[in-house]
Design brief:
The protein is built from seven helices and no strands.
């Protein structure tokens, strides 16, 4: 969070997060949120909560694209009732956004293969 506060102030532009194996995208995302809503722990936690909630329809869409509608419903229900997803859905840690970006990457990759779209493939790589 401190790195994100510094990014919002324009004092620091890191290439990695506090741990060298974590990317800095989350810091820039939170920095943008802090610029819009002000630097607060609530804004950071709400960002993670919203991304966690958006993972459920992404999971539905992924299941529907890979198989059919019942598979999408089952996938969304599994994500909706996942204990780990619920408990980590309000903690402002970078790894709590991983389900959103991983599901988005798999969905975009699936769509890129089905539509033979290079742009979707690049977007999938970005999410990854």
């Amino acid at each position: 969070m401190l790195v994100s506060f510094e990014v919002a102030r324009g004092a620091r532009f890191p290439l990695v997060s506090t741990q060298c194996y974590l990317g800095s995208f989350f810091n820039y995302l939170l920095g943008a949120i802090f610029l819009l809503f002000g630097p607060s722990f609530t804004a950071a936690r709400m960002t993670v909560t919203v991304l966690g909630a958006l993972t459920v329809p992404l999971a539905y869409w992924l299941g529907k694209e890979t198989e059919d509608r019942p598979t999408g419903v089952a996938t969304a229900l599994l994500m909706l009732t996942s204990f780990t997803h619920i408990t980590n859905g309000h903690i402002a840690w970078v790894n709590c956004t991983t389900p959103f970006f991983a599901t988005g990457a798999f969905l975009l990759f699936t769509l890129a293969l089905k539509r033979s779209s290079g742009r979707l493939l690049v977007a999938a790589g970005f999410c990854y």
